[in-house]
Write a structure and sequence with these properties.
Layout lengths: L39 H10 L4 E10 L20 H4 L4 E8 L3 E8 L2 E8 L2 E6 L4 E6 L4 H4 L12 H9 L6 E11 L2 E10 L6 E9 L5 E8 L7 E10 L16 E5 L12 H5 L19 E3 L6 E4 L11 H11 L3 H6 L1 E3 L2 E5 L4 E5 L4 E4 L3 H9 L2
Parallel strand pairs: 6-12
Antiparallel strand pairs: 1-2, 1-11, 2-3, 3-4, 4-5, 5-6, 7-8, 8-9, 9-10, 10-11, 13-14, 14-18, 15-16, 16-17, 17-18
Length: 384
C-alpha cells in the first residue's frame, strides 16, 4: 500500500526496499523433484494469477550499490521511514504479516531500534521506536480497492512489489527466459530472468524467484551491468502460509509516544500512472513550464530500461514560488547526514550515484532519477 501522498517523493525513485519467506521443507534441494518445465509466458501467468493473500515471514534485504557504509549519526527521517541513505547501505531484516487486502504489519529491524507499519482496514500507523514517534493516517474508503495491504510505506518493498515494478518494463526491450530451478526459503521456485537489450541502462539483469506451487514471487535479485553478484537482493528467508494472529494488526502508540495525525489529500495523482500516461506530459504541452515540470506530476522521458523520471520541486506549483524555494527544498533534504554524505557535487546540482540507479538533485529543487548514466539525467534537466 503505497499511498498517493508518498508516491512521488525522491525516496520512491531509488531502490529503497525489504523481504519475507516460507517454511523450509524436510528434503534438501538436491533431493527434490524438478519442477514441471514452463515457458517464460507460463511463469509470468503464474505470477499474475497467484492468490496467496495471507502469510507471515521474514524478509532479508542486502545492497551492494557502491555507497559508503556510513554509521547512523542522527535521527531517522520520520516515523515508519528510515534514513534514505541508511536503507541503501548494508543488510536489513523485516518481519511481515499479511492477511487479505487490508491487514498488514511490517516490522523493520534497524540498529538498536524497530520501525513498524501497521494497517488494519483504512487505518495506518507508522511507528519508530528510536525516538518513540508515531504517525496515524486514515485512508480514503477507495484505498481498499486501489492498493495491496503489503505495499506498506515502511522504507522497504516486498519481492512481489519489486517484481511488479520490474515486470512493468516488459516489452521488446527485454529478453525473458527461465533458468534452472532454484530454492528460496525451502520452496522450489522457477528462476525468471529479465535481461535488458539496451546497452545504455545500468541494469544487467533481474532474476525473480517464482514459487513453483503458487506463483508468489519469493525473491528478486538485480545485477548491475558487468557484475556477477547481485547489487540488490530482497527475498524470503522464512515464510508461513496462512492467516497470522489477528492481534498483530492491532496497534496503540506506547506511553509517552509523540503522535502526529497525517491527512491524506482529498484529491491526488492517478494511482497507477503508466509510462504512456506520464509520457503524454511532454515539453510541448503548454500546461508545463519551461523546465518541462509543472505542478506535482512527474514527467517521464525515454522508455523501458532507459526511462528517466523527473520530479518537480515541492513548491514548483506555488504562485509565490521564488528561485530560492527550490534550493531550500534541496538543502532541507540534505539535512539527513547520511544522504548528504552519499551525494557529490556535479554540474547543475548534487548526485547520488550507485551501480544500478543515478539520482540528480538540481540546484532549483527538481529530482531526476533513472537507471542510466548521470550524463543522461543532466541532459534531461537542462532540456527546455
Amino acid at each position: 500500500m503505497t499511498a498517493t501522498w508518498l508516491r512521488w517523493t525522491p525516496a520512491v525513485a531509488v531502490p529503497a526496499v525489504i523481504a519475507a519467506g516460507v517454511l523450509a521443507g524436510s528434503l534438501p534441494a538436491s533431493a527434490r523433484d524438478p519442477l514441471p518445465e514452463r515457458t517464460p509466458a507460463q511463469v509470468l501467468a503464474m505470477i499474475g494469477q497467484h492468490q496467496t493473500k495471507s502469510f507471515s515471514g521474514t524478509l532479508e534485504q542486502s545492497s551492494e550499490l557502491g555507497l559508503p557504509d556510513v554509521p547512523q549519526v542522527g535521527p531517522t527521517s520520520g516515523a515508519g521511514r528510515g534514513s534514505l541513505a541508511e536503507l541503501l547501505t548494508g543488510p536489513h531484516s523485516a518481519r511481515v504479516y499479511v492477511d487479505g487486502a487490508t491487514k498488514a504489519r511490517i516490522q523493520v529491524m534497524d540498529r538498536m531500534a524497530e520501525r513498524d507499519a501497521v494497517r488494519q482496514g483504512n487505518e495506518v500507523w507508522l511507528y519508530n521506536s528510536k525516538d518513540n514517534t508515531a504517525t496515524h493516517v486514515t485512508l480514503p474508503a477507495a484505498a481498499s480497492k486501489e492498493s495491496r495491504s503489503h505495499d506498506m510505506p515502511a522504507g522497504v518493498a516486498t519481492p512481489e512489489e519489486l517484481a511488479a515494478k520490474m515486470l512493468d518494463k516488459l516489452d521488446s526491450s527485454t529478453e525473458v527466459a527461465v533458468a534452472g530451478d532454484i530454492e528460496v526459503a525451502g520452496r522450489a521456485a522457477y528462476n525468471l530472468v529479465l535481461t535488458p537489450r539496451s546497452d545504455v541502462t545500468l541494469v544487467g539483469s533481474v532474476a525473480v524467484a517464482v514459487d513453483g506451487e503458487n506463483g508468489m514471487p519469493l525473491s528478486v535479485e538485480i545485477r548491475a551491468r558487468g557484475q556477477q553478484e547481485p547489487a540488490f537482493r530482497t527475498g524470503f528467508s522464512s515464510l508461513t502460509l496462512g492467516a497470522p494472529d489477528a492481534s498483530l494488526f492491532n496497534f496503540s502508540p506506547p506511553p509517552g509516544a509523540s503522535v502526529k495525525e497525517l491527512a491524506v489529500p482529498a484529491t491526488g495523482h492517478k494511482k497507477d500512472m503508466t509510462d504512456k500516461d506520464l509520457g503524454s506530459k511532454n515539453r510541448a504541452d503548454k500546461n508545463w513550464d519551461h523546465k518541462g515540470l509543472r505542478g506535482h506530476v512527474p514527467m517521464v522521458t525515454g522508455t523501458g530500461w532507459e526511462r528517466i523520471v523527473g520530479i518537480p520541486a515541492p513548491s514548483a506549483s506555488a504562485p509565490s514560488a521564488s528561485p530560492e524555494s527550490g534550493k531550500q527544498s534541496v538543502d532541507k533534504l540534505l539535512n539527513d547526514p547520511l544522504l548528504r554524505q552519499a551525494t557529490v557535487t556535479v554540474q547543475g546540482g548534487r548526485a547520488i550515484s550507485t551501480s544500478l540507479v543515478n539520482v540528480l538533485l538540481t540546484d532549483d529543487g527538481r529530482t531526476f532519477v533513472g537507471s542510466v548514466p548521470l550524463e543522461r539525467l543532466q541532459a534531461a534537466a537542462a532540456a527546455k
